[in-house]
């Protein structure tokens, strides 16, 4: 049910995404992410348009990690930061990370191709129902996404909301 | 939409001078973003590598360049009205682009793509190759942008003077700032002609 994809630019890495709804232990999950019990990025699905958006964020984070140019302290926090259209780190965590009251969570894992990932271990820690990642569209808030990413109506003539979001993520450093 | 269906195109700025490369990449990205925000079709930017100044863009598939389209339309002596509509559309898009103060820098019919499946009214035109682009409000820069297109257009597509005139008419009608730009275009044309007379 989870989604595992390779990164074309960094073929030694693999990105796995897991989506959960009706989550009852967001507070505990947050603690586990902080203390390293869960080695992944915990993301708020309401801000996610599509799994590709996560892939783009992971790609950028890995690139910055490899070139020693991350703005945050860890690869996982950098993934969360890369999702944001602005350069304000705490705002990025607030908007894209999960809070204690959240009932849905998207977990992003980055691992080496050779590593065998214990997905079941992670799933067992979540008190919620796992669903396929493409169903993030059931959980997201399109109006909120458009507002945060400042997507103008005329831009949607050019392409999808996903295109607009990805563009901003990729160009925020110079825009 | 699945990631596998997207084939990113890689553009690297080949200049030797690092400062110039960095500036070019930044300008390219800013121009594309400005166009898209205004509803002008340009490729999606997926990733910018600021260490090598390489840009990963959407590869526009299922498309034909305006250059090839005009060439084949002329070869088959097809419906001329069809090309008129195309000229109108191009003029309109360039007007929008210049009104956003984006100078393309390398306007040719090879840098305009027609996405297939779109017929006449629903024609989707995508501008590509923003590698020499920059932001400028100067009518002179916009005039030169059009002059570059004019020269490329007329040399690539024989006997299209009327068609290009139609393109400019559409540009003039669509742009809020066109009179100053066309004035500059006329000046640049004159300068060009003078040079060849002396040479």
From TrEMBL, chain A:
PANTHER family: CGI-121 FAMILY MEMBER, EKC_KEOPS COMPLEX SUBUNIT TPRKB. InterPro entries: CGI121/TPRKB, CGI121/TPRKB_sf. GO terms for biological process: tRNA threonylcarbamoyladenosine modification. The keyword Nucleus applies. GO terms for cellular component: cytosol; EKC/KEOPS complex; nucleus. Transmembrane segments: none annotated. Keywords: Cytoplasm, Nucleus, tRNA processing. Belongs to the CGI121/TPRKB family. It is found in: Cytoplasm, Cytosol; Nucleus. The keyword Hydrolase does not apply. Its main location: cytoplasm. The lineage of its organism: Eukaryota, Metazoa, Chordata, Craniata, Vertebrata. This is EKC/KEOPS complex subunit TPRKB.
From TrEMBL, chain B:
Its EC number is 2.7.11.1. Coiled coil: none annotated. One of its GO terms (cellular component) is cytosol. SUPFAM superfamilies: Protein kinase-like (PK-like) (SSF56112). Pfam families: Kdo. The keyword Kinase applies. It catalyses: L-seryl-[protein] + ATP = O-phospho-L-seryl-[protein] + ADP + H(+); L-threonyl-[protein] + ATP = O-phospho-L-threonyl-[protein] + ADP + H(+). Keywords: ATP-binding, Kinase, Nucleotide-binding, Serine/threonine-protein kinase, Transferase, tRNA processing. One of its GO terms (biological process) is tRNA threonylcarbamoyladenosine metabolic process. InterPro entries: Bud32, Kinase-like_dom_sf, Prot_kinase_dom, Tyr_kinase_AS. Residues 1-199 form the Protein kinase domain. GO terms for molecular function: ATP binding; protein serine/threonine kinase activity. Belongs to the protein kinase superfamily. BUD32 family. PANTHER family: EKC_KEOPS COMPLEX SUBUNIT TP53RK (PTHR12209:SF0), NON-SPECIFIC SERINE/THREONINE PROTEIN KINASE (PTHR12209). This is non-specific serine/threonine protein kinase. It comes from Sinocyclocheilus anshuiensis. The gene is LOC107683647.
